[in-house]
Amino acid sequence: MTIAESYLDFATREARGVSAAYERLSLAVAHDDELLALLGTLPPGKRQPNLLFGVVRWLGGPVDDPAAFHDYTVAHWPAIEAQARARATQTNEAGRCAVLLPVLAALPQPLALLEVGASAGLCLYPDRYAYRYGEHRLGSGTPVIECAATGLRPPDRVPKVVWRAGLDLNPLDVTNPDDVSWLDALIWPEHAHRRARLSAAAAVAAADPPLLVRGDLVDDLPALAARAPAAATLVVFHTSVLYQVPAPRRAAFTEVVRKLPGHWIANEAPDVLPCAGLPEPPDEARHNVLALDGTPLAWTRGHGQALTWFA
What we know:
Elements: H1 3-15, H2 20-30, H3 33-39, H4 49-58, H5 66-75, H6 77-86, H7 97-106, E1 111-116, E2 130-133, E3 136-138, E4 144-146, E5 148-150, E6 161-168, H8 177-185, H9 192-207, E7 211-214, H10 221-225, E8 233-239, H11 247-258, E9 263-268, E10 288-292, E11 295-300, E12 306-309
Parallel strand pairs: 1-6, 1-8, 2-4, 5-12, 6-7, 8-9
Antiparallel strand pairs: 2-3, 9-10, 10-11, 11-12
Helix pairs in contact: 1-2, 4-8
């Protein structure tokens, strides 16, 4: 897929109906030869819309008007390029816990959670948040996470978590203002509810920080998993992470994680972590596949806003 095609795909399958600003911006970049040429000077893994738009937002640039965005990006390209090379799309969306919760709640309790690509670790607290699946609500904490669930009776309890750890090449710290500002910049412009959710989830993590380890998802996963308490069910999970990992390393990770005790929950795009026998997705939007130990269970949206169960 060319750079232009990737921006068209982002506009039509991810941003459409979710962020009008990013849909306009992505379509404009896809037809902007000057910006495409600048993006072509970056490594392939640093060209994606979320990273470019997040960097421009973090630097204080405009993302609501394509013409202003073009002018700002061209004028400030050296700073944008430096940040794009240094940073990664570490979106830490606590809303994703809503699509993980049905699986987590059904596993033998208590749980020892280990998130791969944990960012600041906000998805390590599914037991501390509250949830609303239509009229069904559970949990007593904050934030309250809403999810449109189809084909599934929502769980009637939150999981019991006795250990939580995260593995990331560059763990973020919710007590560090620079790290929090980057997480905020990665939230799409119109999503005030996600900014409020980030603030509430960051307060939960800051009050009881998880174990966050800087390391590689293949080389360092077994040692961190070995630190989990033996009396708990180990659950290694990840969501929207593996697209940043080269295909050979994804295969190596899959081999390593399958050998660990406990369970493995993946929530990734089907072209990133293929699953056999998938039904048609609910619509043309981009969906992840929620899978337990390699068995696909449901289609999910990227921020946890919807789940369509098919297992």
